[in-house]
């Protein structure tokens, strides 16, 4: 549970730390100027947006919010994607393109996994809402106005508005 809670906390800071790592990795590993251009214009913003989307999808699930811990499936998907983003930031010349492709595929897997888990939890809550469970399906009880008249609990508030504000001008 501690590891899953750690990932829950890590999701939002990762949205800033991983794009910064790409720029720092460029400087540490002495990549080309074109690589910096690609990092600044494409890679860092893509990781930032992807990380925010992933965090929102994961944190939108009721079980994640209630437990303040992600699922083990999220731990696996996020770990794979983050390791690939960190490896991409090392700018290995011989494996640059395969790492990039794997990182994109890992994000897509994380996205669809999170979306599927969110849908699964939402579908479960929709199934609980069967006919006969809404407020309109409750047995008839005397109206609130009738009860108030019987018990002398009537308070009348007259609100007078100014012309043009959408309220009554009585």
From TrEMBL:
Keyword Membrane: yes
Domain of life: Bacteria
Name of this chain's protein: MFS transporter permease
UniProt KW keywords: Membrane, Transmembrane, Transmembrane helix
Keyword Transmembrane applies: yes
Transmembrane stretches, start-end: 7-29, 35-58, 70-94, 100-119
């Amino acid at each position: 549970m501690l590891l899953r809670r750690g990932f829950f906390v890590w999701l939002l800071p990762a949205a800033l730390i991983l794009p910064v790592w790409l720029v720092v990795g460029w400087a540490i590993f002495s990549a080309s100027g074109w690589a910096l251009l690609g990092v600044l214009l494409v890679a860092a913003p893509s990781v930032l947006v992807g990380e925010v989307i992933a965090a929102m999808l994961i944190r939108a699930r009721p079980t994640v919010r209630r437990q303040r811990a992600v699922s083990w499936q999220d731990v696996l998907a996020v770990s794979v994607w983050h390791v690939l983003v960190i490896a991409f930031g090392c700018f290995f010349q011989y494996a640059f393109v395969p790492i990039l492709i794997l990182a994109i595929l890992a994000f897509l897997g994380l996205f669809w996994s999170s979306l599927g888990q969110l849908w699964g939890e939402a579908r479960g809550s929709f199934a609980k809402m069967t006919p006969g469970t809404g407020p309109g399906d409750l047995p008839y009880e005397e109206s609130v106005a009738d009860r108030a008249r019987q018990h002398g609990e009537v308070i009348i508030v007259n609100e007078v508005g100014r012309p043009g504000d959408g309220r009554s001008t009585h």
